């Protein structure tokens, strides 16, 4: 007898329908074959499904069982087809007669329970787009699917429970929809801005970067506070909108980084990979492409501490994602696109020993060592950094003065949120969230300068030999500075501050 059960496969963030065809034949030698370009994990479903069915109290047919995962010309990977295969065998083997409409998705344990399975949110989004009304997913992953409205999410605890529901329509209650807005939280921060001694210029740059989503590079000697400033950034970043949270959660769901029972990514991402990270780890890739750090930092922050210690080839690979806001990974059998609209925050030392220009510690590096060290970060990468700021060593007197304290992160966040609200109203129709993502055509529309501002920018372009890319990035930063001041027009003072943060510090 033949049975058909629907499931879903995901390649990157794209999902497509998989029809699980199961034939249990009376003729032929007993066996269990899976066809349709399965990978190792899919092929091993034979043992998982067989053992799960037996341990759940069902008989396993001692007949010739053929499972076809259609379309047969597309590679299938992962263990998410276990549930559909098991239901197909029970139906084709005449163990049960039931309504099999809906999508079945989940990995089986040997005892028949259904495990947490990555990509559940992608399945729910696919079901909604294609008019499917009902999906059966693991109970530990069901909250991911419940954030998608207009869909009946059936949380499955075990194979036995699912079969009883399909036969008697009892035992499983649909999961109530989850409101994303009630789950989004402010990000925790390791340091409050008020705890950082001095560094007012760096704090100002950090505020502008947070308000507009701009890339930031800090250069200074060890112990000057570069890492502390970076770790304080999550405390002043704006809270994610519902659309942003759902977009980030798609990536984390595809990567299997959503914890069992969690529904969404609640806080704006802050990723801080070690400088030994490989090219595939940072950009994404592998034989079965998975998202890298640049994609996991989508709509959040990618912090590269000791940026000059990263391999040059790894840094160069960031050039396209920094410009396009996405990563395209091509393989012989597939092409995957991951979003990568991240905010780069980097910290570097001015030289190998770190004490070049220090007021009290002598630098022992040679001129050749310093030049070689600075060549580790190429000009095109630095050209894509909107804000560059020097973080000098803090004076001893300021460190020991307990009365010194600046604005708290809470106060700075309020200013950042007001600036983001202005940007949101302005850019809502364009589908972008901050000034850093403005295209050149949009910059000409929203970043118009008065005569004095144009004069300052023209003189700066000539004096510092800024590139065309730098010209447009200065305008983006000037627009953000104006938004922080609540000004509808970009004034000369805003342009001057944006130019000041454009000067090379490394």
3D architecture notes:
With about 500 residues, the chain is α/β, with parallel strands linked by helices. The protein folds into 2 domains: about 1-180, Ribosomal Protein S5, domain 2; about 195-430, Rossmann fold (3-Layer(aba) Sandwich). Helices cover about 35% and strands about 15% of the residues. The strands form 6 sheets. It has a 5-stranded parallel β-sheet. Strands 1-2-4-3 form a 4-stranded mixed β-sheet. A 3-stranded parallel β-sheet has the order 5-8-9, sandwiched between helices. Helix 2 (about 45-55) packs across helix 3. The longest helix has 19 residues, at about 410-425. The N and C termini lie far apart (about 70 Å).
List the helices and strands and how they pair.
Layout: E1 2-11, E2 14-25, E3 31-35, H1 40-43, H2 45-55, E4 64-70, H3 82-92, E5 103-104, E6 107-108, E7 114-115, H4 120-129, E8 134-138, H5 142-146, E9 152-156, H6 159-168, H7 200-212, E10 216-219, H8 226-232, H9 242-255, E11 270-271, H10 279-283, E12 284-285, E13 290-291, H11 293-296, E14 301-305, H12 312-316, H13 319-324, E15 326-330, E16 335-339, E17 343-348, H14 367-374, H15 379-383, E18 387-390, H16 396-400, H17 409-427, H18 440-446, H19 451-464, H20 468-484, H21 492-500
Parallel strand pairs: 3-4, 5-8, 8-9, 10-17, 10-18, 11-14, 14-17
Antiparallel strand pairs: 1-2, 2-4, 6-7, 12-13, 15-16
Helix pairs in contact: 2-3, 7-17, 7-20, 19-21, 20-21
């Amino acid at each position: 007898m033949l049975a058909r059960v629907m499931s879903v496969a995901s390649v990157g963030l794209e999902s497509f329908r998989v029809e699980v065809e199961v034939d249990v034949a009376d003729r032929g030698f007993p066996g269990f074959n899976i066809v349709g370009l399965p990978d190792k994990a899919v092929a091993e479903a034979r043992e998982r499904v067989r053992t799960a069915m037996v341990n759940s109290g069902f008989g396993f047919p001692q007949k010739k069982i053929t499972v076809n995962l259609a379309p047969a010309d597309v590679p299938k990977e992962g263990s998410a087809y276990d549930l559909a295969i098991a239901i197909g065998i029970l139906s084709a083997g005449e163990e049960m007669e039931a309504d099999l409409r809906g999508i079945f998705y989940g990995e089986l344990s040997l005892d028949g329970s259904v495990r947490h399975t990555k990509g559940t949110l992608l399945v729910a989004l696919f079901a909604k787009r294609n008019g499917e009304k009902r999906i059966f997913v693991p109970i530990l992953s069901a909250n991911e699917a419940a954030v998608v409205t207009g869909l009946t999410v059936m949380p499955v605890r075990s194979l036995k429970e699912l079969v009883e529901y399909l036969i008697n329509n009892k035992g499983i209650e649909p999961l109530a929809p989850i409101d994303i807005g009630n789950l989004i939280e402010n990000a925790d921060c390791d340091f409050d801005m008020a705890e950082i001694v001095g560094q007012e210029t760096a704090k100002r740059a950090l505020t502008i970067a947070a308000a507009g989503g701009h890339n930031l590079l800090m250069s200074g000697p060890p112990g000057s506070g570069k890492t502390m400033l970076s770790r304080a950034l999550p405390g002043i970043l704006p809270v994610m909108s519902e659309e942003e949270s759902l977009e980030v959660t798609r990536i984390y769901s595809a990567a299997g980084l959503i914890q069992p029972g969690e529904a969404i990514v609640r806080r704006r991402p802050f990723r801080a990979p070690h400088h030994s990270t490989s090219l595939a780890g940072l950009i994404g890739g592998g034989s079965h492409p998975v998202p890298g750090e640049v994609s996991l930092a989508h709509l959040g922050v990618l912090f590269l501490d000791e940026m000059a210690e990263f391999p040059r080839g790894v840094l160069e690979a960031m050039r396209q994602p920094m410009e396009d806001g996405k990563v395209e990974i091509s393989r012989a059998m597939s092409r995957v696109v991951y979003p990568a609209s991240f905010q780069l925050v980097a910290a570097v030392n001015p030289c190998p020993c770190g004490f070049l220009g220090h007021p009290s510690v002598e630098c022992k590096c040679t001129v050749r060592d310093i030049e070689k060290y600075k060549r580790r970060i190429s000009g095109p990468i630095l050209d894509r950094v909107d804000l560059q700021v020097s973080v000098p060593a803090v004076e001893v007197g300021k460190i020991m003065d307990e009365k010194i304290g600046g604005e708290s992160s809470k106060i700075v966040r309020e200013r950042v949120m007001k600036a983001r609200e202005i940007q949101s109203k302005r850019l809502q129709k364009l589908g972008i969230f901050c000034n850093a993502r403005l295209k050149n055509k949009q910059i000409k529309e929203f970043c118009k300068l008065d005569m004095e501002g144009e004069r300052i920018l023209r003189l700066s372009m000539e004096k510092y030999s800024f590139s065309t890319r730098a010209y447009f990035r200065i305008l983006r930063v000037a627009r953000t500075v104006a938004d922080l001041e609540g000004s509808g027009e970009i004034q000369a003072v805003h342009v001057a501050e944006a130019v000041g943060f454009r000067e090379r510090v490394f």
